[in-house]
Amino acid sequence: MDRVSGGAVALAVVAGLVGTTAGCSGGGAVAEDRRGGDPGGTVRRAADVVLRAGSAGDVRTAMEMAAGGTRVTIRGTGNYDFRGRSGQLRVLLPTGPAGQQEHRPMVEVFAPGALFMKNRGAGVPADKWVRIETASLSDGNLVTGGATDPLAAVELLRGAREVSYVGEENGLRHYRGVADLGRAARAATAELRGPLGAAAKGLFGKGVAFDAYLDDLGRVRKVRHRFSFVNAGKAVAVTSTTGLEGFGRPVRIVLPPVKDIYLGKIRQ
Fold it and tell me: Rounded to whole angstroms, how far apart are CA atoms 40 and 55?
């Protein structure tokens, strides 16, 4: 059997999801922003602050896709080990026209250079996982599974430019700007350079608008990115939100065993 094509999986997931429903202390830097300091520097440093925190025991994601008058939202919950560059999410697909959940939740495991997906759908046995090389994806694993890799969501901020300090909201510092994908790829940790570099050349062009919310320690508590691309001749607008809580909480991520990886074809 042929090995699964990562790029084909990416487009199939996006198209399928849209079609489903149609039928360290950063307090000083933050204070400086209030006085007209360097908000761009604060945001770019936020990725390092999150990595030093080690983990997020409570990760929540929401990806809203809009295409051809149809709008769907995919939500995920899980945790992330930033030191190990790995995490796990349980992703809920949109309900059907009758408001009933018609699909089993997808389980996704993020690992350096790879995305593992269970309950992927058509053509994949129920007890098997699909493994995708993230560097092969033209979206850099920002959209593929209906959730942005939390590490990638944070690393994108290394490319922040045109940043402004909006103000304080619910005890968090709100910043707005544009993430330059090429700049983010060059500054990212080794595991993310390939995927972000692919995204810079692929679907999204060079700039991704963002809103980032940092706490008094300079940690990213929430970040929202807005992408757009064309799939099957239709423009798709994507808003991806990643929330991080439970910093430093012990997190254990188990990769799927090799014997459970599906190597066959996926029906599109």
Answer: 24
User: How would you list the strands of the sheet with 70-81, edge to edge?
Assistant: 129-133, 114-118, 106-111, 86-92, 70-81, 55-67, 234-247, 220-231, 207-214, 172-180, 160-169
> Whats the size of the chain, residue-wise?
268
Cα distance between residue 234 and residue 67, in whole Å: 7
Nearest to 148 by CA among 74, 219, 251: 74
Closest CA to 213 of 81, 43, 74: 43
pTM for the structure as a whole? 0.84
Q: Is 5 helix (H, G, I), strand (E, B) or coil?
A: coil
Phi (first) and psi of residue 34, to 5 degrees: -65, -30
Q: Which residues pair with 64 in a beta bridge?
A: 73, 239
Tens-digit pLDDT profile for the chain (268 aa)? 434 444 444 444 455 544 444 444 444 455 555 545 799 999 999 999 999 999 999 999 999 998 878 888 999 999 999 999 999 999 998 765 555 555 788 999 999 989 999 987 667 888 899 999 888 887 888 888 889 999 999 999 999 999 999 999 999 999 999 999 889 989 988 888 888 888 887 766 668 999 999 999 999 999 999 988 777 777 888 999 999 999 999 999 999 999 999 987 665 5
Give me the residue label for tokens 């202390």.
25
Q: Is 248 exposed, middle or buried (0-12, 13-18, 19+ CB in 10 A)?
A: exposed
Q: What is the DSSP string of 177-220?
A: EEEEHHHHHHHS-HHHHHHHHHHHHTTS-SEEEEEEEE-TTS-E
Beta strands of the chain (E only): which ranges?
55-67, 70-81, 86-92, 106-111, 114-118, 129-133, 160-169, 172-180, 207-214, 220-231, 234-247
Tokens of 26: 């950063």
* Phi, psi for 145 (deg, rounded to 5): -95, 15
